Amino acid sequence: MSDAPPILCVLGIGNVLWADEGFGVRCVEALHRRYEFADQVRLIDGGTQGLYLIQHVQAASRLLIFDAIDYGLPPGTLKVIEGDEVPAFMGAKKMSLHQTGFQEVLMLAKLTEQFPQEVVLLGCQPEELDDYGGSLRPRVKQALEDALALGLDRLRQWGAQPRPRDTPLPDHEAITFAELALNRYEAERPPEALACRVGDERFMPTGA
Hints:
This protein is of the alpha/beta class.
């Protein structure tokens, strides 16, 4: 039997290029930039990787997931789902393909009997998704801070030992590409008149 401590996995999923759908990734990015954790804690930018995340889920004893979830509630509302309800809930009302893929990850982990002892989904109701190149809307960005507080409370209960970083994290050690870091991503976006929000008009259906 291994004496290694159980792995605590913190996973942010979603696509930062589509406005509020990037909520989960932005949460994990913020945790990584602001805090250090015990050695057994794994912070992962899951993006839209789908089944490629199975190894991380199977290896985890406890799993904390951040994601944008359509609860049918006011934008920016946070809701916590736990245990067996998580895979079922993620399949109930999908917003994008990444949720289909991640629901399959959770179900596969169950089938292989390598499912975490505890699973917590910390989701935020999005306001805007159809904004390619857009960032979090103000209400969702404000909710991110409350989501981090809830996540840190749970991680403390799990023995993750979060502690504020003494020195800023160098850009090359960031969990996301430097070009996609939240502040830079927002600052370098073209103005409204120049940025295409829904796609390349050359390939849009006639009259769209």
